[in-house]
Hints:
Homodimer. The protein has 244 residues and is α/β, with parallel strands linked by helices.
Amino acid sequence: MVxxxxxxxxxxxxxxxxxxxxxxxxxxxxxxIQRSVPGYATLISNIGILxxxxxxxxxxxxxxxxxxxxxxxxxxxxxxxxxxxIIAVDNSPAMIEKxxxxxxxxxxxxxxxxxxxxxxxxxxxxxxxxxVMNFTLQFIPLAQRQTLINxxxxxxxxxxxxxxxxxxxxxxxxINQFHIDAHxxxxxxxGYSDMEISQKRTALENVLIPESLEQHQQRLRAAGFGFxxxxxxxxxxxxxxxxx
Length: 244
Ligand SMILES: Nc1ncnc2c1ncn2[C@@H]1O[C@H](C[S@+](CC[C@H]([NH3+])C(=O)[O-])CC(=O)[O-])[C@@H](O)[C@H]1O
Ligand SMILES: O=C(O)C(=O)Cc1ccccc1
């Protein structure tokens, strides 16, 4: 795939509008996410490896907030079980439309993929061995997060895994600032200007609500997960697993 460069915040914007996953973002999304999320490629490939370990025959694997289907493709490539179905969900019609084309071109496996355009709050999770939310929960209103995690817990089979990647906030101001600064250095090193970094930060302010690792762990435990573990961290970007 040819990656079109993300220049959305390169020129000064007269009026800041909240960040949305619209056609403009979809058009540059692979470039945007790779230059903005430290370790994105590592996460995608290791999520495929984790999914292959926990997927079982005759079960569903969910990719919630699938964007262009990177997690789905990685799971599809790695899972070697019989009669597994991947259900990939996103509420951005532009994302789902492009994901559809990308998935059609992928002949890597015979694992079926069902692409669904809906709010993940409405997704019925059932017979699941694997559920992935790779940087999606952070966009869900705080008041809805516990209900969603509870639904995922309920829909998982015993021994099933939730893989949850999130941008974190840290309770300690100095630690929080250290990670934010390091992340901004990462973006600068990937060619984003100070203006791009600052304008996107403002656009995300009311849209991407990060929580602390402790808040995530507490919510996972409250839902019933007995085992939770952080398996990846680079600056303020982490990925956790929770096993039923
Ligand atoms: N309520 C919602 N219901 C469904 N989808 C939603 C909702 N809110 C946001 N989204 C969708 O969640 C995705 C978040 S991006 C995930 C990256 C992907 N997982 C990846 O591994 O490439 C992360 C990021 O861009 O930082 C977007 O496609 C939104 O449309
Ligand atoms: O760019 C950022 O600052 C981020 O936190 C990551 C991100 C990546 C893609 C869309 C929205 C947020």
